[in-house]
Amino acid sequence: MATTILLVDDHPVVREGYRRLLERQPGLVVLAEAESAAEAYRQYKALTPDLVILDLSLPGPSGIEAIRHIRQWDGAARILVFSMRTGSVVARRAFAAGACGYVSKASPPRELLAAVAAVLRGERAMSADIARAIAQDEVAGGRTALDDLSPRELEILGMTAAGTTAQVVAEALCLSLKTVHNNLSVIRAKLGARTDAHLVWIALGAGLVSPSEGLPIKE
């Protein structure tokens, strides 16, 4: 029987590229696509594919939230992250949420296909650059400033550093605007961020957002 895949990415052209690459491999079939964390969760519950391949940069709640919700519903779900984000903090949070593999989009196609095969065999998979980032982090002591943030604070920081307004963050995460502002104050204090630009710089340096996402924070 064919191995079924759910693709999660907010760019239709990117999803089409994934689909073509994957379906050229014998036995792989893209069963469905999603462009948000909420849609990914709904599609997974409705179809229970053999594998989920998802980006972390999604409109609203990130792919980390999608991983967490899918694994809460199905503890055996196989999820492979395919993302521009290469920071060890983000990769470790993805694994902690329940991801089985993590491949950066800078990797050659063969690394994605090798990771797909490994995850389907029940193994943990990482592209070479992700493995290197995690190893360097471990050698340096295994902790960064972002490790002191809660999962919710990390989510808010990621969305905010990508240029999302506090109002949109509140709506996407079902929080009050006051709660978002309070969380941002706590985040600044924990990270020692002097300005909003400094906050973005910290997020970029930790790989929480990619350079293409790191925009000036909107009020």
UniProtKB/TrEMBL annotation:
Q: Which Gene3D superfamilies does this chain map to?
A: 3.40.50.2300, Winged helix-like DNA-binding domain superfamily/Winged helix DNA-binding domain (1.10.10.10)
Coiled-coil positions: none
Cited Pfam families = GerE, Response_reg
Q: Which UniProt keywords apply?
A: DNA-binding, Phosphoprotein
On this chain, the residues bearing 4-aspartylphosphate are: 55
Response regulatory domain segment(s):
4-120
- Boundaries of every HTH luxR-type domain copy: 142-207
InterPro entries tied to this protein:
CheY-like_superfamily (IPR011006), NreC/VraR/RcsB-like_REC (IPR058245), Sig_transdc_resp-reg_C-effctor (IPR016032), Sig_transdc_resp-reg_receiver (IPR001789), Tscrpt_reg_LuxR_C (IPR000792), WalR-like (IPR039420), WH-like_DNA-bd_sf (IPR036388)
UniProt GO MF annotations? DNA binding
Query: By its UniProt entry, which SMART domains does this protein fall under?
Result: HTH_LUXR, REC
Record GO biological process: phosphorelay signal transduction system; regulation of DNA-templated transcription
What is the designated name of this protein? Answer: Two component transcriptional regulator, LuxR family
Species the sequence originates in = Methylobacterium pseudosasicola
